[in-house]
Amino acid sequence: MYFITTFQRLQKDDKGWLDFGDERTVGFYSNLKNAQESVISNAGDMCETIYEYAVIQKLEEGLYPTVEYQELYKIKDIVDERGFYNFNLTYEQIEIPEWFPLYGLDIG
After folding, report:
1. How far apart are CA 89 and CA 108, in angstroms?
2. Is the C-alpha dihedral spanning 7, 81, 93, 16 positive or negative?
3. Could you read off the pLDDT of 22-53 as tens digits, one per residue?
4. What pLDDT is attached to residue 101?
5. Which residues face 92 on adjacent strands?
6. What is the Cα–Cα distance from 79 to 83, expressed in whole angstroms?
7. Alpha carbon 63 to chain centroid, angstroms
8. How far apart are CA 87 and CA 104, in angstroms?
9. How many CB atoms neighbour CB 11 within 10 A?
10. Could you tell me which of 71, 29, 26, 23 has the C-alpha nearest to residue 51?
11. Low-confidence ranges of the chain (pLDDT < 70)
12. What's the order of all strands across the beta sheet hosting 90-94?
């Protein structure tokens, strides 16, 4: 299954711990294409004005599942040219930092 998790930040704190801010698993799909389309189009307004990042993670079945595959996305143009919330948001795929975790953010 391909799980979609949104989160506020992509950084480390002053002690080196990962800091994603608020996180929310918004759904899952049985295939990658549907998961990608949902994230890219910001389906259901998954950004919710605060979730700047989204990750799609393919997880194996079982307890404490291992991530088999993942893609990272960042919101484009959260505000419009007038400085207001952009209701036509989309996410774009970005490179995954070397330090990004290989564990499920949503399960486990």
Report:
1. 30
2. negative
3. 999 999 999 999 999 999 999 999 998 899 99
4. 79
5. 74
6. 5
7. 22
8. 29
9. 11
10. 23
11. 106, 108
12. 23-29, 2-7, 53-59, 67-76, 90-94
